[in-house]
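Archive transcription. Copying these from loose printouts into the bound notebook so they stop getting lost. Printout 1 of 2:
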Amino acid sequence: MTFASAVALVLIALLLAGIVYQQIGLAIDRKRVRPFGQIIRAPGGSFHMNCMGEGDITVVLESGISASSLSWARVQSDIAKFAKVCSYDRAGFGWSDRRSGERTPGRLAQELNLMLNAAELKPPYLLVGHSFGGLIVRAYAAQFPHEVCGMVLVDALHPAEWATSTREQKRVLAGGMLLSWIGALLCSLGVVRLCVSLAARGRTRTGQTVLRSFGSQATEVVNRIVGEVTKLPPELLIAVRAHWTNAKSFLTQASYFASLPRSSREMLNSRFPSELPLVVLSTDSPIPVRAEEQRQLAKLCEGAEHIVIAECGHWIHLDRPELVVNAIRQVVERSRLAPAQESRIRYSS
């Protein structure tokens, strides 16, 4: 046997071992990491929704571009003290099945409507959208205006940010998609699971070495996301690790990145119910254009309130959960005092 043949056999053996290791890990995760809510059948596949509390208004929590229902853990139980509140996993994330098709706000709003109907959750809904989720809740309010009684936007994405992508933005999106596809491949081979398992035991060198092989920018982005995730309650981290050692999460993320410019253009000139109670929460951005975009979001509805939060990260519901809860409570109270939605809908341009 030649040296090259021996090396090839070793590589093949390592690949097969990684695949077996990954499949065993997935099987263990399915038994050990159970959904926090219910798995509900809907047209197109099953989805996970976690509901708490009760009341005449249902608060629906819409996560950021790659986040799941777990991202709302620090606010959901407090919201449940004064309203029914549901977080859910969009298709392909968390415990929800993947779906085909582009991941644009209009399509995602339709899928959310199917999920709410399948879960037998009746309107009115108060929609809360973080980051990319802000586009989805706006699309839902545009398509189903009679079902929505108010909104809270949590450092929400303004469609102008990605509607006409610059060369740098195109490069960032292409890099994000490439890293997502590579992540899916490494998941399938057990590499991501191994790195995450070692990191959970405090042994981060292997994971950082793998990350650095993709460049300093990729390392910075992943480390920043990990830093946000570690703000979740510690008991949820095992579920986060299970989700991100599954290739479907990376493949779904890639589809979101691919659709982002179209998603932004789709919402750029969307019509919107102008009299909805609305609170816009945003960070104190040092970038003038970002600060102005948040001010524009606060002009979507008449009488909207814009709250700028100093010294806070993008995930406001993790850094300052009490402010998010207070904003939702405020809109719930305003919605209960407002006249029937059917008689007062007007649209902003």
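Printout 2 of 2:
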Amino acid sequence: MTAAPQPISRLQWMLGTLSLPRSWRSGLGPIIAAVVLAAIVLTAIFAPLIAPHDPLTMNTVQRLKGPSEIYPLGTDAYGRDLFSRIVTGGRISLFIGIGAALVSVFIGLIIGLVSGFFRLADAIIMRLMDSLMAIPSILLAIALVSLNGPSIWSVMAAITIPEIPRVVRLVRSVILSAREEPYVEAAIALGTSMPKILWRHLMPNTLAPLTVQGTYICASAILTEAILSFLGAGVSTEIPTWGNIMAEGRVYFQIKPSLIFWPGLMLSLCILSINLLGDTARDVLDPRLKKREA
């Protein structure tokens, strides 16, 4: 008998393929993804030491220069070092991605615990979450940034708010199943306080799915920030991010395509690495996949 087909992962969907070899997802692939992501993160952390020039310093005499010993990736339309801007821009993009993932998971976890355990609160909370999910996330993000002005915190809030309902629904589904377990009923019968039941007995059940969901949110937040910045509705254009760098370079794409290629490559490698690690974490943490493989 042939094995049952595996579900298509997010990474497979992005690449437009029908399958990824199991050896790649569980062996060499995650290792390469971890190394690439670690290199990007370390480069962003130590950007002030790695960048050879100030990413904001303009030099119109050196505008649109090609790669050289002084400028490893050349310069942009304002004579700024492209390599320094890409390295520094990674700090903002990663900060927004990681920050949005942590905040949305934390808030979604608390609301999801309450919604899944208390039936009366569930009806009210889920209607609010459904209302938020009915609004396209990119349009909501653009509206919030337009109201509050372009800044890092506005973009992070605009990305985080649409992600919270998804986390709430995930946590709620786990709690609805876990609260019927005998050990939870025993804790209630023994008079254990509600906060203790929620945090000690129910919350640990959500850690595995939240870990996978957090990686997806992080990758999605980095991509959304780049989209907003590319559309001119993201972080202020004075702040270098991968999206801002590509937005400025699109005018000169025919003259110098590297202005979009290099930041786009960094963005793609970062998102693909996070998604591949998320898929690997899902394979490891989801017991249903282990049973299916057996």
